[in-house]
Automatic annotation (TrEMBL):
Keyword Lyase: yes
Listed SMART domains: OMPdecase
Catalytic site positions: 101 (proton donor)
Chain ranges passing through the membrane: none
Keywords noted in UniProt: Decarboxylase, Lyase, Pyrimidine biosynthesis
Family in the record: Belongs to the OMP decarboxylase family. Type 2 subfamily.
Protein name: Orotidine 5'-phosphate decarboxylase
CDD domains to which the protein is assigned, alphabetical: OMP_decarboxylase_like (cd04725)
InterPro entries in UniProt: Aldolase_TIM, OMPdecase_type-2, OMPdeCOase_dom, RibuloseP-bd_barrel
Residue runs in coiled coils: none
Amino acid sequence: MNALSAESFGNRLRTTTSARGPLCVGIDPHPALLAKWGLDDDVAGLERFTLTTVEALAGQVAVIKPQAAFFERFGSAGVAVLEKAVAGIREGGALSIVDAKRGDIGSTMAAYADAFAGAASPLAGDAVTVSPFLGFGSLRPLLDLAARTGRGVFVLALTSNPEGGQVQHAVNGDGRTVAQTVIDAVAAENAGAQPLGSVGVVVGATVTGVGREHDLSALNGPILAPGIGAQGATADDLKAVFGPALGQVLPNSSREVLGAGPTVAGLREAASRTLEAVSSALGS
Ligand SMILES: O=C(O)c1cc(=O)[nH]c(=O)n1[C@@H]1O[C@H](COP(=O)(O)O)[C@@H](O)[C@H]1O
């Protein structure tokens, strides 16, 4: 990809999900999953797990989200496997979200920007997840570079874990929740973009009352919704959780699909089943 002249991530996401359906499958090579697949908990096991998942799904699902921590736990050899995953996902025609959840002060964020959104960085997928809890403005170097290289950024807003609400539901001096300030800041990044902005938010499918307590109406960007399957949310929950924002939701499922390995056929079948369930819930 000539990243500097690439179509925006928002455009590419819209095109790919229209063709393949609205599903993101995570590559989360947990030690327990490696064992279930009959693989050792080492770099060779990680590589076999990752490349099998890419082989099975990169030509089938719209988006694949490798979770960086499971690669980093093996040091530089694990990170090299993550780079292979990013390249393989691109070759298969899916989009990749590198789930790195980075966040730091602006000057250090510029280095993360080079790593995860740099035009020629092997670690840069089509998009990256970031944490805004050092202040949304601290993300500026990454937001700017990603816009220039045609990449997307997914900003944590309402995470799927039960502890998240302690910070994210806290109310600011102006009466908005911290999560709402994140959503509003993302909306400002996406203002005027057609058909969809390239900056998304992450809102867990396990979070209740999203539509009641938070306003996503001006977002104009994608909503990555993890939590389907292993964390207890179901496709049927999506409507109640997201209400009018349903059309922008990109549901993610990791362990539930990966647990159907190690065969390529098993993975494809599980991804199809999940896509069918979420598509019918999203009405797409
Ligand atoms: O940013 C994420 O992807 C994310 C945000 C969040 O709020 N909750 C959440 O579970 N995730 C990630 O989504 C994936 C969920 O995996 P499963 O629970 O196995 O489907 C993991 O990689 C998590 O790190």
